[in-house]
Structures are given as structure tokens and as C-alpha cells.
Write a structure and sequence with these properties.
InterPro entries: CU044_5270-like. The chain has nine helices and eight strands. The protein has 303 residues and is α+β, with helices and mostly antiparallel strands.
């Protein structure tokens, strides 16, 4: 069980009725989230937009750091996102990410090793602990109890590595394999919604990965219609790219965050799209940032 699955278990306590729209969105979020011969071109649509507002974003970030000091883990206590810059379609960003991932190093592990994950989360629906909570977790790389369908649509890091290693080149086939790997649990979920959920779930659990295989996931995501991108600030106060896909009727938007330097999974946000009695438009109701991921030899060991 990873950090996103653990957060999903917050549904165990029945919330107040007015939180139902939030819970539906949270459940969607936490069920997870080209050919080389083509000439590279400047993807100016999102890069130029980001550059045009860089000075403003820097000013906002500086103001935030002057007002609130960072804690010992580099996390600002009670950190709230300082900006959201909409970038439009995520297609070019995801293809750039695929190129960067494919050219990067592999992350490997062996049976007997563990995956160490340190993260921070703020859940405004938690009346007892509404502020940032930092957690450390260790997951066995090879865990037979999480493999071969024994844990539903959860998978061990070893099983996920094997999935990535054996992906085909065709994005349509990658989408189909992702649907089978993270199968549908909601009958109302469309095929496109299922594929987006499954592919972003793969990103969130790629603790160990083959770079060529992981790049194919980004390229498959780039072919899904309606995937948008924004530049945001995560729960740790860092810049991040947010991926999201919404329907007109959605009250909340579920975001999957990517590190802008590595394009790897960096966290998630659940943001109110409209105001109501409980939340204002733009409120980040649930937010998590992954601070450290590493392969270690023993449970309890830190990198």
C-alpha cells in the first residue's frame, strides 16, 4: 500500500453530508494518480507563457518565504499554494517529459530491498490534524502479497517495474495495458477517465523504473484528450507542473504534480473549482508532496 492508497482510507469515517462532492473527487484521485525520428521543435505554447510570468511568480514566492520560515524538512508550516498559472494542453509538456525521462538513468532495486518514501500532506477535512503532516514509509520492493492480483489493483514496486519494462511502443496499446493493470472499479467511469486514472497511477508508483518504459507512459498520457497543465506550488512550497482532466460538472479538480526539473511524480492536490458553504473557489482541500524517494537495503533505513 502506498501513500495515495493510505490517504484513500480516510473514507473509513463517514463525513458530513456536505463533503460528498469532495469525497467523490478524492476517491478518483487516490485510486491513483513518439517516434525518435521526428524533428524537435520549440514547444512555445506553454514555455513562453511560463516565461512571460516568471517575474511575477518569483515575486510571489519571495514574499511567501519572507513571511513564513521553512521548517527543518524544507516544508513551510501551513504552506498554501501561492499561484496557479494555467498552461493549456499538457500534450507538449508530456512529450517533452517523455524525452527527458527516456534520456535519464534507470532506478533499479533487487529482491530484499525496500523503497523509502518521505512525504507531507495537508487535509483540510481532518478536524484533528488540519495542518501539514510529515510521514515516512517503507515498502518492500518484492512483496508477493501485492502481486498477481492478490491485492486487487494494487501492485508491488517489483510488479510495477516489470509492467514498465515490458510496455509496447504504441501509445494506444500502452493505454490498454494500463487499463488492465489498474482495472475499473467504478461502473460510471468512462474509458478515457479509466485510462487517465490508470496512467497517472503508474506515475505515482514508479519507485523503480526503466526509463524507456516510463517514457512510454508519458507519451500515452499525451494522447488522452482533455489533459491540461498548470504551474502551481505544492504542499512543500515548491514549483510543480499540475496535470488534470475535468468535466464541466466537476466541483473539484484532482491534480497530479510533476517535478519541473525531473518530470517525475511529485505529489497531488484536490482543488475546489467553485465556492460553496465550506470552501472558496481555489481552496486546496487536500494536498500532498513527495519529499524523498530512495531504494534502501533495510526497512527503517534512511538514505
Amino acid at each position: 500500500m502506498d501513500e495515495m492508497t493510505a490517504v484513500r482510507e480516510l473514507r473509513a469515517e463517514a463525513p458530513a453530508a456536505e463533503r460528498a462532492p469532495f469525497l467523490a473527487g478524492r476517491d478518483r484521485l487516490l485510486r491513483e494518480a513518439t517516434g525518435r525520428s521526428r524533428a524537435r521543435r520549440l514547444r512555445a505554447d506553454w514555455r513562453l507563457m511560463a516565461a512571460a510570468t516568471a517575474a511575477l511568480i518569483t515575486a510571489v514566492a519571495l514574499i511567501g518565504t519572507q513571511v513564513i520560515d521553512r521548517g527543518p524538512d524544507g516544508v513551510r508550516p501551513g504552506a498554501r499554494p501561492g499561484y496557479t498559472l494555467e498552461l493549456g494542453s499538457a500534450k507538449d509538456l508530456l512529450n517533452d517529459a517523455a524525452d527527458a525521462i527516456a534520456a535519464g538513468p534507470a532506478v533499479t532495486a533487487r529482491d530484499g530491498q525496500w523503497i523509502y518514501v518521505k512525504s507531507v500532506e495537508t487535509n483540510l477535512t481532518d478536524d484533528e490534524k488540519p495542518g501539514p503532516q510529515t510521514d515516512e514509509d517503507w515498502y518492500a520492493y518484492a512483496d508477493p502479497k501485492m502481486e498477481d492480483g492478490k491485492a486487487g489493483d494494487d501492485h508491488s514496486p517489483r510488479e510495477e517495474y516489470a509492467f514498465l519494462k515490458n510496455l509496447p511502443d504504441d501509445p494506444a496499446q500502452v493505454r490498454a495495458k494500463a487499463r488492465a493493470f489498474f482495472y475499473a472499479t467504478d461502473k460510471s467511469e468512462s474509458r478515457t477517465q479509466h485510462e487517465y486514472r490508470a496512467l497517472t497511477a503508474v506515475l505515482s508508483r514508479a519507485y523503480a523504473y526503466d526509463p524507456a518504459g516510463l517514457a512510454k507512459v508519458y507519451r500515452a498520457l499525451a494522447t488522452i484528450p482533455g489533459v491540461q497543465a498548470a504551474e502551481v506550488q505544492d504542499e512543500a512550497g515548491r514549483s510543480a507542473y499540475a496535470l488534470y482532466r475535468t468535466n464541466a460538472a466537476d466541483t473539484y479538480r484532482d491534480e497530479v504534480l510533476l517535478d519541473p526539473a525531473t518530470y517525475l511524480y511529485a505529489g497531488y492536490r484536490h482543488v475546489a473549482r467553485t465556492g460553496d458553504l465550506q470552501w472558496d473557489k481555489g481552496d486546496v482541500v487536500l494536498s500532498g508532496a513527495r519529499l524523498v524517494t530512495a531504494v534502501v537495503d533495510e526497512k527503517g533505513e534512511r538514505p
